[in-house]
Every structure is written in structure tokens, then in C-alpha cells.
Amino acid sequence: MEPYNLTVVQSSVRPVVKADGRFRPEVLRGNAEHAARLVRQGAAAFRSKLFVLPEFCLHGFELGVPTAAWLEAAITLPGPEIEPLCQAARDTGAYVAGMAYERIPAFPGRFFNTAFIIDPQGEIALRYRKMYSLTGKTTPQDVYTEYCRLFGGPESLFPVLDTPLGRLGALVCYDIHFPEVARCLALRGAEILLHITSEARGPEHYEEGGGAWSAVRKARAWENVCYLAMANTGPNLDSDLPPNVCHGESQILDFTGRALNRAGGTEECLVTAPVDLVALRRRRAGARFGFLTEFCPAAHAPIYAAAQGWPLDAFAAAPMGSSQENGAVQRRVHQQMCESGLLPRP
């Protein structure tokens, strides 16, 4: 198979809900149409076969918005709101990945942060719901038992899409800090990790070498022998937040953790690099640095099972009303870890 081009889209967005809590559906349509135009531009300029849009590419983001307002703005997938992206996938013959706040009828009163991949026929071929978040959204582990019953067991938390371009897996923003997410995707066959993210400015991004977030991305690509494509949000327009609230630096890494291309800042742009599946599979077939073949899950499973971490089904009985409820669970877990001696008391 010949190498093909992959493009990450560092797109500008507008918030569909501002601090006054009013949902603006016309802004959602505008964000979708703008993202679709960028996909078409990338296909025309680079003949790319896979596009990765950033987190909040449809909904934008704003601080101080109540959970109820985001719930009102959430959409079902598939749905008319993402039709511009579906049509762009059909027109270009490309796969298009992005993110939406999603409502699932089986979980009334909740919304999920959902990464999706649209195939060249314009159909949603994969949905991944963000695993780690302390905001007002629901995560699969919050409703774990019912989620697994509905969607097909624990494997449904880590879906992988087999395509002619390779096996694709998605993870969202903060998930990158948990090596278990990327490793579970790799153990289910993922060869290209699509990191759909929205990372604000902060000192962790500006240390020598790119900071902590950049370091963990390199580690996830290296330790799982995967390509990793990271799309960060571009300018945040029509918002109470500054336009360059996100640090940009969208990037594509190869399976050694080497940056093949990256954005030079926060502006809206398309970042493109080739994906060589033959080289990746040759590397995976070898013994040197064969981390996936050397990994021994059974040695780690008892320690993980005994850890007093975040509980499953923490919000199975009722949806959380705000992010403060998530914080209360975190404080309880922290107290348990202090009592066990794992963490020092504050």
C-alpha cells in the first residue's frame, strides 16, 4: 500500500451557547459548514484521505455555561447537524473525524462528549465517548453496567474501526494523560490514534520540548507503535474568552513519536503528513521494541483491580446536575487514597 496523506484541521469555532445560557442553533450549523469547507480545501490541496477535526468543532466552548444549556445543545448521532461533514466525506471520498456533544435516548437527562468517524459513504462508522472528564458531561464509566449492556460489553468503551487506511481509534483531550486508554485501543488493533482535543494555554505547554501534553503524546505513539494525529482548536471567535485561548500546535506523530508536521501557532490551518502503513506494520512485526508483544496484562491486572480509583457507575442512579458533583466524587476517592497511605494527607 502506498503512503497516503492525513490532515489535522486546526479550525476556528464559535460557541453555540454563551454565558447567558441561550442555545444558538444557527452557530452550530455555521461551525459544521465551516469545518466541511476546510475538509474540502484539504482534499483539493493535499488529496488527503483522513481528516481529524478538533474537540468542540461543532459546539465551540465557553466558560460559565450551565450543564442544562449544554444538554439542550447536544445532538443525536447521526443527525442533520453533522450532515455538512457527512456530505464533505462523500464528496472527497475521505474519512472525517470530529467531536460533538451527544444525547443518547437510552440515557435521558445526560450528554456525552463523543468522538465520531464518518466514512466515505457519509455514514458514522465509529463513536467513542470520552472516558475522563471532571465536567458536567456523562462518561461511559459513570453508567458502566447499562452502557455495556446496551453497546456490547467492556470492549464497546474502546471501539476501533478497520479501514483501507489502517485501523483507527479515537480519544478525546484529557484522555491522553491515561496510558490505559491508548493501550486498550492498541490492544484492540488501533494503528492510528486520533487525538481530538482542545488544549488551553498554560505553563505545561511551554516547557522545553513542548511541555507535558506534547510529551505524553510522544509516549502514547512510541509505547503503542501507533501514528498519532492531534487536532487542537484554533481561534475561539465570538466568545467572552480570548481568541487564542487554545495553544494550537496541532501535530502528526509517527510510530516512533517523531513529529512529522505541526502547526506553528494558534491560527486556523491545515497540517498534513504522510502515513506509511507498510512501515508501521513492518515495525510491529519485528521483535525490537515490540511493546505490544512483550506486555503482560495478567501481571498488572491484580494491582489495577485492587486500586481504590474512580468507582464504576458513580452516576448510574441519576445524571449529575453540575461539575461540582464530579468534584465531590474525586474528593471521596482522594480521601480513600489518603486513608490507605497511598497519598499524603493535605
A few lines on this structure:
With 346 residues, the chain is an alpha/beta fold. The protein has helices spanning 25-46, 67-73, 83-92, 144-151, 179-187, 211-224, 277-285, 291-294, 297-306, 323-340; strands spanning 4-10, 50-52, 95-102, 112-118, 124-129, 161-163, 166-172, 192-196, 227-231, 251-253, 259-262, 269-275.
User: For this structure, what is the CATH homologous superfamily?
Assistant: Carbon-nitrogen hydrolase
CATH topology, what is it called?
Nitrilase/N-carbamoyl-D-aminoacid amidohydrolase
- Strand content range: 15-25%
- Rough outline: globular
Structural class: alpha/beta
Percent range for helical residues? Answer: 25-40%
Low-pLDDT stretches: none
- Determine the N-to-C terminus distance: 56 Å
- In CATH, what is the class? Alpha Beta
Number of domains in the coordinates? 1
Supply Rg: 20 Å
Topology order in helix (H) and strand (E) letters: EHEHHEEEHEEHEHEEEEHHHH
- List the total number of helices: 10
What does this structure look like?
The structure is a single chain. The protein has 346 residues and is of the alpha/beta class. The chain has ten helices and twelve strands. It has a single domain, classed as Nitrilase/N-carbamoyl-D-aminoacid amidohydrolase, CATH 3.60.110.10. The strands form two sheets. The protein has a six-stranded mixed beta sheet. A six-stranded mixed beta sheet has the order 6-7-8-9-10-11, with helices on one face. α1 links the parallel β1 and β2. The longest helix is centred in the first third of the chain and has 22 residues. It is globular, with a radius of gyration of 20 Å. The N and C termini lie far apart (56 Å). The mean pLDDT is 94.
